[in-house]
Design brief:
There is one protein chain. This protein has helices at about 5-15, 25, 40-45, 45-50, 50-55, 60-75, 80-90, 105-110, 175-185, 200-210, 235-244, and strands at about 15-20, 95-100, 115, 120-125, 135, 160, 185-190, 210-215, 230. It is α/β, with parallel strands linked by helices. The chain folds into two domains: about 1-30 and about 80-120 and about 170-244, 3-Layer(aba) Sandwich (Rossmann fold); about 30-75 and about 120-160, SIR2/SIRT2 'Small Domain', CATH 3.30.1600. A six-stranded parallel beta sheet has the order 3-2-1-7-8-9, sandwiched between helices. Strands 5-4-6 form a three-stranded antiparallel beta sheet, with helices on one face. β7 (about 185-190), α10 and β8 form a beta-alpha-beta unit. The structure holds ligand BV8 and zinc ion (ZN). Zinc ion binds next to loops.
């Protein structure tokens, strides 16, 4: 049996499957990844754009970058990889939890429901003055975004509802992600470089708890040597076959 057939067998015998996705699953929708060829961090420094310090220093710059990313995502469509996961969730005999590091919302647009967005969403805005959080899907945004408490013009600010480097993960979501990793039979890791923590830490958590861990990626990652199966290739091609 090859690695693909073995992984299919594990998945089809599983009662609980958890999936961790990263930017690679949206690559075939035309959304740039962070660290790959053409990746966002090849030409920009995360310290300048995706930290609370960067936002405090230059909120206009940070907002322009997020507004640009919102426009890229708005004109993109979910791909066959997103759809395969959404269809798999509909199966009666298996419970699927989808943990995503992606902020693009494409899993939801593909029809998935059980999604844990551990790094937040670019479609959510949060007021740093009053704490209010809301969805805004307008593209482009009127910058700077304002809150009904009037923040944005003076004291407080409205920020993207994403998790920046140095920030904790959402307390209402992260424990569920850890729990999914700890209790699944199969943990599928798709399109992530597995270098950003604590997200990447879900992989050894699942492994130690006894799950079969299967990685789908076009290239090797620091986790490849520690998983039970490596399926090398594009997620939009592999997932529909794997989950069929
Ligand atoms: C925190 C924001 C503490 C939203 C992002 C341990 C060691 C060293 C450092 C740390 C550590 N633990 C924590 C840290 C610090 C830091 C961190 O991990 N740094 C690393 C990079 C060294 N972590 C944090 O700061 C985290 N917070 O630790 O808080 C704390 C606790 C309590 C109280 C206060 C503080 C927060 C991390 C969140 C960062 N936010 N984004 C946004 O604007 O998007 S991170 C960024 O990376 C992305 O958003 C994404 O979510 C994340 C992961 O990237 P990937 O999705 O994996 O994408 P990448 O481009 O890297 O890889 C793409 C992959 O796809 C590649 O492997 C490629 O081969 C593959 N691929 C490409 N095409 C395809 C494909 N695969 C399949 N098919 C294809 N077609
Ligand atoms: Zn407010």
């Amino acid at each position: 049996m090859n690695a693909f057939e073995q992984a299919r067998e594990w998945i089809h015998a599983a009662g609980k499957v958890a999936v961790l996705t990263g930017a690679g699953i949206s690559a075939e929708s035309g959304i740039p990844t962070f660290r790959g060829p053409g990746g966002l961090w090849r030409e920009r420094r995360p310290e300048d754009l995706a930290t609370p310090q960067a936002f405090a220093r230059d909120p206009d710059l940070v907002w322009q970058w997020y507004d640009w990313r919102r426009s890229v995502v708005a004109s993109a469509e979910p791909n066959a990889g997103h759809r395969a996961l959404a269809e798999f969730e509909q199966r009666k005999n298996v419970a699927l939890t989808l943990v995503t590091q992606n902020v693009d919302g494409l899993h939801r647009r593909a029809g998935s429901h059980s999604i844990l967005e551990i790094h937040g969403s670019i479609w959510t805005l949060r007021c740093t003055a009053c704490g209010r959080e809301w969805r805004d899907e307008s593209v482009p945004l009127a910058l700077p975004p304002l809150c009904i408490c009037n923040a944005g013009l003076g004291s407080g600010q409205v920020r993207p509802g994403v998790v920046w480097f140095g920030e904790g993960l959402p307390a209402d979501v992260w424990p569920s992600a850890e729990n999914a990793a700890k209790t699944c039979d199969v943990f599928l890791v798709v399109g992530t470089s597995a270098v950003v923590y604590p997200a990447a830490g879900l992989i050894p958590i699942a492994k130690h708890a006894g799950a079969r861990v299967v990685e789908v990626n076009v290239e090797a990652t620091p986790m490849s040597a520690r998983v039970d199966g490596v399926l090398q290739g594009r997620s939009a091609e592999i997932l529909p076959e794997l989950l069929r």
